[in-house]
Amino acid sequence: MNLTVSRREFLVTLTALLTMPPRLLASPAGSTGTFEHPFSPQSLWNARPVDPVLGKTAIPRRDNVAWLEQDKYAAKLFRATASDGPMTVQGRDAVEGIWVADELRNRPVIVPHFPENVVPATGLDGHCEILDESTGFIHSFYQLSFDTAEKVWKAGKYTASSVSGTGWGSPARPDGPRASGTPSTSGILRAHEIGSAIVPHALAVAAHTNALKSGPLYPSTLQDSTGTEEYSGSFPMGTLFMLPPDFDFETLNLPNARAIARTLKVYGARLTDTAFRTFSFAGEIGGQWSQAVDGNSVWRSSWADDLDRIRDHLRPVISTSSWLDSEGLTFTPPPWERMNLLSMRGPWTKQEGPEESVSGFETTSNLFLFPETQSPIAYNQTIHRRDNAGRDPWFQWTQGCWYTNPEPGRQYRVKAAGFGQATAGLDVRARDETTMLTSVWDLKAGETAEITWPARASVTKIFVRTPPGPPSGIRLELQAV
After folding, report:
1. Which of 63, 219, 372, 427 has an alpha carbon 20 to 30 Å from 253's alpha carbon atom?
2. Does the pLDDT value for residue 334 go beyond 90?
3. pTM of this prediction?
4. Domain locations along the chain
5. Which residues pair with 140 in a beta bridge?
6. What is the per-residue pLDDT for 25?
7. 3-state class of 154 per DSSP?
């Protein structure tokens, strides 16, 4: 922005911007799915609600001091290219390796391109994310640190996601480094976005437990595991907040607060995490979004006043008439039950194969991988119906349950994807685990079958196998027709 422009010229330009047709206001086509603007055009980070209806409940002031975190409890996205070398990251708390969320096991993680300038957040969460532009994967770490004694990188948790994906979890892959199941850089105020009149995506916010209500709200897949005991508020994880149309951002004191307010009137903010006695907007480490102090390091009370006003006027979105993607096109976000419901994460039991062979689900390829073998190899696993009766029903997927149960009587397509000669199948059984209700056998990559989900379905058995031959990989997907 030209800083010599007059206030009147600026207001005229801004008014024109905010009244442009949605397509003109949107980011240019093809600009998403990049380091500067992650995720797909239809990601609910990049999409805008049309005609949102707002509720009346305000965020409680008590224990929710308005704040913008861009320091030790924030996160930063680092760029990796093909010229960066690989790095093995060990486990922080387990000698066998990091907890790989989508695999439900501990193992070392090899990041194929790890830039030399990586510096994790210094707070207890130790968030850090690396976008490998040669593969399109975002490598997300929780509690990442460099062990100076052992000269190795260590982390407590690892997930991988696509830079062109949704930026949220799914029934097949619900976990992420934030409590809501998202990457930690989703929705953050990026360093390069400073000076924007409107940030081109929804913002991420965190609140004290007295603001949260147990039970994550779509598109959030998870919440803090202690949420059922500690949450005492009105807003589920994933809630979209917006400022009402009549909120006058021009009355705010500081330009960055005004940019945040404009964004909250167009894209809103998603509740993605808990914070201790603060209501925090997420800024990127190293960014200059916070104007809490001036150039002489003197505290500005006007910044706190601005954020307090924004917090006090935010309201939850109750409904919308439709959604516009980042290109200005209308779309309908798919609900969980329309997504792929089946994960290949395991645990798996070997039925056949050499004792020394090592096979299993691998999170970045999203496939069950077999090594080269001179003998047949076969594994199976069991998935139980989620009963929703536990203390934390959203975490039953870690105990061998569906995240979202297939619906009895509904038609589903079973699709196999992968490479090589591996095959996969499933059968659906009653509660006694012996009565077979329906089955699909030995699908190769690219093959599909359709089944009607049985009314008495309780246990699903997944089978994968490969004949002798070169390495292969396979996964099954289950999606409503």
Report:
1. 63
2. yes
3. 0.91
4. 21-333, 338-480
5. 129, 159
6. 38
7. strand
